[in-house]
Every structure is written in structure tokens, then in C-alpha cells.
Design a protein that fits this description.
Elements: H1 5-13, E1 18-23, H2 26-34, E2 43-45, E3 56-57, H3 59-62, H4 72-78, E4 83-85, H5 89-104, E5 110-114, E6 117-121, H6 132-147, E7 151-156, H7 159-166, E8 174-176, H8 182-187, H9 199-207, H10 213-217, H11 221-228, H12 232-238, E9 255-266, H13 269-290, E10 292-293, E11 296-303, E12 308-314, H14 321-335, E13 342-350, E14 353-354
Parallel strand pairs: 2-4, 7-8
Antiparallel strand pairs: 1-6, 1-7, 2-3, 5-6, 9-13, 10-14, 11-12, 11-13
């Protein structure tokens, strides 16, 4: 770590004890738990061999390259023995509530990111245990005992590192990154592991000779701003393991959406409607996973000349799945015919609110400690 960087983190935001808990292949693991005949088999939740997209894949399926947001037909080609299961989101939400109740036994500072993952600030934990690694171990043990499911956890002094750590030893693993270990850990990682760096971003970085966190850390902020624009400041801090964001018990996402860039521009209504069906399934799976509802549906199309067209519709109540699909299709019909072919389609739900209210005790907050002697 560059001289004084860790001290500046402590001075500006206070070193914290952060745990990131991430359930292992959550939807697929629930299906395997509830149907023992699926144990050891490649399972995809959502999609089918004919249409739709995969919402989640078991680890057995992932070995064949099956991933979430992948078209079901593609997943079936990669893994002919793949077993498809319809999502049971009410079941997943119920289990997620069980798991969050466990979190709140240890801290009021719980920031859910989706049904299957959350950040916890245990700098001052409710039971006075004082050791973040011990708390993470207890939480994982309780999750398994009470739900029969496994979870992975990352423990560190900020959210960025904790999330990286939770993915390090999956499935059913624990990784701890202590103060002083953050920068060496980040330097060793491929840039694709950084949150927010997708496949195309990684390709662009590789074209610039950037492969690892160490390569990124060697770049000046001016170089990053020239090549990565608004993402530059985040990349500069991430390469130095700096993240001052607190855990927010009432963090509220503004929107949930997804988009697809076509391999070839599409000009026909039937072609666009077929793609829209896949995007509807993909985005609704993310909505269910996030445990929120919204009131505004927006469809956007980027045309072949890169101009952007969008239409939106707002209801006076929460949009349910049937509304979401119907409104999206109506918005597309309203935009047809297009003056020129489309190269990208995106679908967004906004005006979000929690599907269920947070527990009352989540409103209190604990101030971060300046020391992490018991990590």
C-alpha cells in the first residue's frame, strides 16, 4: 500500500469491520434442497430449451459454461443434460427473510443487495463479540443449520474488499482480508474480478495492456480519465483498495434494468419482439432477486446511427410481472415502425420501493471504530 493510504482511509471514513455474505447459487441450491433428485445434477432456474433466459445456475451447470442471463437455448446447447426449473420467487423471498433475520441478530447495519447477498457492518456488533471473522463463521453456520443452504463470506475493512473476498473461496468458503493486505490482494487479481468491469470492459483494458490490479495501479489518474471517463476515479481507488462507502441499512436502488446489444441490427417488429421476450425474463428475474417493486417501465432502443429513443409508462400501483411484460410489449408497439434498424434494446423498472418493509431495528446505526485489533 502506498504510504499513508490506509491512514487516510481511517481518517476520512474510519476503518470498519465489514462482512459480505453471498449465498451459493441461491435459487438453484433451493431447488436442489427441496428436490433431492436434483442433487449433483446441472440445474438452471428459469428459461427453457425453447425460450427465456436463465435466472440462476447450479455449480454443476456452471462447469459447462451455463450462466445467469444466458438464453435458455444456448444453455441447453452447452449442457444437453441441463434440468430446467421454473422460478419460485415467493419461496426464495421467504428464505431470504430468514437469512436477514440472522444478520440482524448480530448488527442493525445490514445492507441487502439482493435476495441472496448483503453487506454487514459489525464494527460494533450487538453481542459484543468484537471479532468479524468469528461473526462471519457463526452466521454461515446458522444459515446452514436453519435453511440447509451454504453461504460464502468475505471479511475486510471496506465493502469493495469484502465483496471480492466473498467470491474468493466459493462455494461454502470464507476469506479474510486484513488491514495491510488489501493492496497486495487487489494487485494479484485479474481486472475482470473488479465489480463493474464486464467482459467488454476487460477486453478494452487488455487492449491497453492492463490485465491485473497491479497494472491498473501503475496508471495515472489522467491516463484513466482519458481512457475510462467517469469510471476513472472508481478504478483509481479500487486499484489502491480504497472504498469509503458506509454500509447503509436503508439503501434504495433507483432502478433495475438490463439491455442487449444485437450481433446484427434488427429492423423488423417480429425480430424485436423476440428479443424483448428474453429481456423481459432477464430483468424480471433481477427484480425478483432484488426484492423490490416499482411503478415505471421504460423501454429504450439505440438505433444504428446511435440515436436513442425511449418510451415510458407509469402505474399508480406497483408493477407486477404480468404488467411488466404487457407494458414492455405495448411500449415497443408504440415505437414501431422504426426509422432505421436498432442495435440495442434496454428495459428498466424505476420508482422502486421495497417489496416488504425493513425491520424497525434497522433504523439505528453504529459509528465506525478507528481500530480493528480484533478482526
Amino acid at each position: 500500500m502506498e504510504s499513508g493510504e490506509e491512514d487516510r482511509q481511517e481518517a476520512e471514513g474510519g476503518l470498519r469491520k465489514i462482512i459480505h455474505v453471498d449465498m451459493d447459487a441461491f435459487f438453484a441450491s433451493v431447488e436442489q434442497r427441496d428436490d433431492p433428485s436434483l442433487k449433483g445434477l446441472p440445474v438452471a432456474v428459469g428459461g427453457s430449451e425453447a425460450r427465456g433466459v436463465v435466472a440462476a445456475a447450479s455449480y454443476e451447470a456452471r462447469r459447462f459454461g451455463v450462466r445467469s442471463a444466458m438464453p435458455g437455448a444456448q444453455a441447453a446447447r452447452l449442457c444437453p443434460q441441463l434440468v430446467f426449473r421454473r422460478p419460485r420467487f415467493e419461496v426464495y423471498r421467504g428464505i431470504s427473510r430468514q437469512i436477514r433475520a440472522i444478520f440482524h441478530d448480530y448488527t442493525p447495519l445490514v445492507e441487502p443487495m439482493a435476495l441472496d447477498e448483503a453487506y454487514l457492518d459489525v464494527t460494533r456488533d450487538r453481542l459484543g463479540l468484537g471479532n468479524a471473522t468469528h461473526i462471519a463463521t457463526l452466521i454461515r453456520e446458522r444459515i446452514f443449520k436453519e435453511t440447509g443452504l451454504t453461504a460464502s463470506a468475505g471479511v475486510s475493512y471496506n465493502k469493495f474488499l469484502a465483496k471480492l473476498a466473498s467470491d474468493q473461496n466459493k462455494p461454502n468458503g470464507l476469506c479474510v482480508i486484513r488491514p495491510g493486505e488489501g493492496v497486495p490482494f487487489v494487485e494479484s487479481l485479474p481486472l475482470r474480478r473488479f465489480h463493474g468491469v464486464g467482459p467488454r470492459g476487460a477486453e478494452r483494458m487488455a487492449a491497453l495492456g492492463l490485465q491485473t490490479g497491479a497494472d491498473l495501479r501503475a496508471c495515472s489518474i489522467d491516463f484513466l480519465r482519458e481512457n475510462f471517463g467517469s469510471q476513472a476515479d472508481y478504478l483509481y481507488r479500487a486499484a489502491r483498495a480504497i472504498d469509503l462507502r458506509p454500509v447503509r441499512a436503508h439503501r434504495q436502488r433507483k432502478s433495475i434494468g438490463g439491455e442487449r446489444t444485437f450481433a446484427r441490427d434488427i429492423s423488423t417488429g417480429p425480430g424485436l419482439r423476440e428479443v424483448l421476450g428474453d429481456i423481459i425474463a432477464m430483468v424480471w428475474a433481477d427484480i425478483e432477486k432484488s426484492g423490490v417493486r416499482g411503478r415505471t417501465v421504460t423501454l429504450k432502443l439505440r438505433l444504428s446511427d446511435f440515436t436513442l429513443r425511449s418510451h415510458a409508462r407509469t402505474l399508480d400501483r406497483a408493477v407486477e410481472e404480468r404488467d411488466f411484460a404487457a407494458i414492455a410489449r405495448e411500449l415497443l408497439d408504440d415505437m414501431l415502425p422504426l426509422p432505421q434498424p436498432a442495435r440495442l434494446m434496454g428495459l428498466i423498472l424505476s420508482g422502486l420501493e421495497l417489496a416488504s418493509a425493513p425491520s424497525a431495528d434497522a433504523k439505528s446505526e453504529a459509528a465506525p471504530s478507528g481500530q480493528m485489533s480484533l478482526f
